[in-house]
Amino acid sequence: MTIAFRADADVTNGTAGTSVVVARPTGTTTGDVLIAFVAATGLPTITAPAGWTLIGTQDASTALRIRAYWRAASNEPVSWTWTLGSSQRSWGWVGAWSGVDTTNPIYGSESASYGSGTSTVTDGVALHRASGYGLFAVAGVRTASGTGTTWTSVWDELADLSTNGGSGTDITGCVSSVAETSDVDVAYADQFTASQSQTNRVSWSISLRPVFTAYDGAMFKPIVEVAWGADPDGDPDLWNWTAIPRDDVRPGLKVTKGLQSDSSAAIAPPTSVTFSLNNPGGDYTPDNPLSPTYPNVVADTPIRVSVPFGFSAPTERALVFAESWDPTWEPSTRHGIVEVTAKGRLHRVQTVNAPVESAARRVISGRAPFSGVMAQSYFPCEDEPGATEVASAFAQNAGHPNAFVNFGSATDCPGSKPLPTLDAGAIMMLPVAPYAATGHWTLLAVMKMPETPVATTVMPIRILCSGTAPTWRIGLAPGSPDTMRVRAEGSSDIPLLDAGFSIAEAEVYGQWVLVQLSVTQNGANVDYRLGYHTATDGSATTGTLASRTIGAIRQGYAWATADTDGVAFGHFAAYTNATFSVVSDPGFIASAVLGADTGARPYRRFQAICDAAGLPHRILADEDIPFLPMGPMTPTTLPAALEECAATDQGLIHDGGPGGALVMVTRSSRYNADVDLTLNVDARELAPPFSPQYTTRDRVSDSTVSRSGGSSARYVDTSVRGTRSEQVTLSLDSDHYLRQIAGYRVNVSSTPGMRYPALGVNLRKSPHLVQAWLDCRIGSRAQAVNLWDSHGPAAVDQVINGHEETFTGERWDVVLFCAPARPFDVPVLEATDGTVFRADLAASTLASGINAAATSISVASIGALISTSGANYPCDIDVGGEQITVTACSGASSPQTLTVTRGQYARAHDAGTPIVLWRGRGVAL
Predict the structure, then answer these.
(1) What is the pLDDT of residues 166-225, one digit of tens each?
(2) Where is this region: Disordered (predicted)?
């Protein structure tokens, strides 16, 4: 079931004492799980009341201690008392939740200590991939001054705690929470900010584990729900779901997600759901006015398939959109049936094939993740050459150009579609929709001046506002060097301000720059900041205009004189939210506009594209693993832009996420992954189809990788018999990675050994596997172990590329579409988890033959010797296909002696047999 917060209670002890008494949260019932935090100044012992289990303790120097506890509620008292070993100021907090596993409630926890400061970021903690819930706490101490500390939190704040003494040491704290429903483990952290500096701080992060509702192996039908009349592009939270009667759903419903092979495709086929409905009365017949569902049996109607098991009730298996409702009849009885086919969100994306906004438009509009601030007014100016008006990006009046504006003639702004140039005498008037003054506005514009520096002062940008400084101008003035100017004027164009700063002329003339003017009302005065940004640099000045107001921005103008003939303009945006950072945000925007988002992480570009298109999405990625920086984002279609992200990353995009979300499975998320699903063949957990293939299909030994607009590199595996080549072109920011990518692609596609295209599971026969299965997602790792002797000794170790679920009432069958996991077992330099990775020697062989009972072997090596360090053992080697475990190595010269243990498949081997690491790891990309 889903985790739900019930209530909390807290206490703050501003007077030092030895007791921390916290009341029972209102409404706590048997079966709830309780979490407690107790914090105290100094390092006193903290003794919990009976029945509370310690999660952990975190200290900050000798100044502060916080402890976390849990217990399952059962006939709880009205309050609990924690006892301190010495008299201290303290606070305590207890929260209650339903839907938490009462025997093993803590899915994960982290804690940390910090020195002085106001801001504390908690350690990230992974929330369970279904119905996960995160709980965060911070505590601080400071010299008491009579002023209490307040905290703010990124997530939902549950309690703000602070003592408020006039002497001694105050203790402060805050507790927050966040809930998540996902098909992946998502790592969450919180950022707490204190109203005043703390001398020491500690933090806690806890992830709660939801209750799992088990499947008992009984017959069942999946739950099918339809959002009749819903807008498929609208807010899913507004969809009203209607469950199809169980008896109407015929056996044989099938859900297919992801790839159906081990191909290297970057985008999977859309999720597919097919099923049949009994339809004797025509309830599901399209265009049937007698149907109670008329007129809503149409294409693109949202359909959700769930099962009544898992970590929430029910557990979604797919959210798709109807593609067809095809009526048919059983020939003998004329019993009405409707065959339903539905596809995932990718089908709609690929069918519409919509263009992608430019990097400039995506970021400036506020739909990209930077400050999260939307522009008040925005004119991209990316209009076609025949335009007679300037289109607004929002629902507001169009801009008005005159005849001297040449739309679409400036084609070299990296992150933009073509922009207009202005001949002498040209003017563009760009209105701002009326709004209530906020005390701040920022104007941004992209500009490219002619290459020749100005001979006289020019003011090509003009802003009108409602304040007592109603006109602001931005321009350039000649000098040594030239300066960028800001001018403010009163009524009748009376000068109020004329200030500027020196520019790097080579950065401004003949180059695209982002110009920014920000003004903020500061009491009776106006603070301003004028600056320009290149893709990587910039300069600015600040100052104050006394005794004036800025009001609300009303209109902007761009114009050209004889000195600025040919100037190019675009992307006029007005921001009126004071949280827009006038320092960091324009620099971020300039990087996107003038650098076309070059250098972006592939999954971050995927995120930005989805945000701009309004597509729900998820990302599976390890941000600590180096990424492949992408090249410039060029105008293209939405499907092509998404595919470009996944192809550059060597990842996979599918639409099988929760709520039908698009999911980008990055290569980093598959590195050294834990096994989510183990199928024990001895226990008959592996079902058909299981058909190992020793095939050369899709095995590439010769890869040529090219960069869009750049060079290419080739990698050939000469050990492979028969060349199978490929050529791919990727979006990269440099040629540096080409050969590494080519080698990686060969390593992944040419993994030795058999292929296992499909692994089957009958979940009605093995219901104990349901929890592990519902924990799986595309990109998870699965193994089949204890296979028959005729197969060989090795386990089948696979990555799930896709899957198919079939519900027949009598069966719940799952087929996993797989690819080898071996290429994703990669070395980690300076691993902190104790894992030891080893490199193969260039040439090692048996110095003498061994029989099946040998427990030591003599190894001859050419060049480097095998390590004799005990830290490197045990490890496994491959001797003629036999897996042998090495427990020690001795000898300072070749041959060396290995002490070994043998498995059930031990056999004799001749002298000269090659020795390599068992399943040695390839280097990660």
Answers:
(1) 899 999 999 999 987 666 667 788 889 898 999 999 999 999 999 988 998 998 899 999
(2) 690-720
The full DSSP string for 414-458 is TTSS-EEEE-TT-EEEEE-------SEEEEEEEEEB-SSPPSS-E
Strand pairing report for 725-730 and 702-707: parallel
Please give the backbone phi and psi of residue 204, each rounded to the nearest 5 degrees, phi first. -130, 145
Least Cα distance to 89 among 51, 141, 127, 54 occurs for: 141
Q: Which fold has domain 367-588?
A: Jelly Rolls (2.60.120)
Q: Dihedral of CA 29/31/32/36: which sign?
A: positive
Residues in the chain: 925
Q: Where are the alpha helices (DSSP H) in 650-781?
A: 738-749, 770-775
What's the pLDDT tens digit per position in 20-61?
A: 999 999 999 999 999 999 999 999 999 999 999 999 999 999
Segment 230-268, tens digit of pLDDT: 999 888 889 999 999 999 999 999 999 999 876 778 999
What 8-state DSSP symbol labels residue 242? E
Residue 734: partners with Cβ closer than 8 Å, 6 or more residues away: 629, 707, 710
Cα torsion angle, 894, 897, 901, 902, sign:
positive
Mean residue pLDDT across the chain: 89
What are the residue ranges spanned by the domains of the chain?
Answer: 4-208, 223-352, 367-588, 675-823, 844-917
- What is the pLDDT at residue 757? 87
For residue 401, which of 567, 568, 553, 558 has the smallest C-alpha distance?
558
What CA–CA distance (Å, rounded) separates 23 from 10?
Answer: 7
CA pair distance 833, 898, nearest whole angstrom: 26
**φ, ψ for residue 589, nearest 5 deg:** -60, -45
Query: Which among 855, 335, 349, 847 has a CA at the least distance from the CA of 638?
Result: 349
Could you tell me the end-to-end alpha-carbon distance of the chain, in angstroms, rounded to an integer? 40
- What is the distance of C-alpha 571 from the center of its chain? 28
The Cα angle at residue 224 between residues 222 and 226, in degrees rounded to 5: 170
Instruction: Give the strand pairing for 758-762 and 662-665.
Output: unpaired
Taking the C-alpha atoms of residue 603 and residue 618, their distance in angstroms, rounded to an integer, is 10
Question: Does the pLDDT of residue 394 top 60, yes or no?
Answer: yes
Read off the pLDDT of residues 835-860 as tens digits, 9 standing for 90 and up: 455 565 557 889 999 999 999 999 98
Rounded Cα distance between 441 and 784, Å, is: 62
Please, what sign has the CA dihedral across residues 673, 674, 676, 681?
Answer: positive
Handedness of CA 109, 61, 146, 25 (dihedral sign): positive
Q: Which of 161, 163, 213 is nearest to 192 (CA)?
A: 161
Cα–Cα dist 846/850, whole Å: 8
Average pLDDT value for residue range 874-889: 86
Contacting residues for 440 by C-beta, under 8 A, at least 6 apart: 518, 519, 520, 521, 550, 576, 577, 578, 580
pLDDT in tens, 281-314: 999 999 999 999 999 999 999 999 999 988 877 8
Q: Which H or E element spans position 611?
A: helix 602-613
354 DSSP assignment:
P
Number of Cβ within a 10 Å radius of residue 412: 10
Best CA proximity match to 109, nearest among 42, 176, 56: 56
Question: How sure is the predictor about 89, in pLDDT bands with cuts at 50, 70 and 90?
Answer: very high
**DSSP secondary structure code for residue 829 in this structure:** T
Does residue 524 have a pLDDT over 60?
yes
Contact assessment for residue 242 and residue 227, using Cβ atoms and an 8 Å cutoff: yes
Do residues 717 and 750 touch, judged by C-beta distance below 8 A?
Answer: yes
Burial 455-482 (b: 16+ CB within 10 A, else e): eebbbbbbbbbebebbbbbbbbbeeeeb
Euclidean distance between CA atoms 425 and 113, whole angstroms: 63
Paired tokens of 817: 């579409």
Quote the pLDDT of residue 827. 61
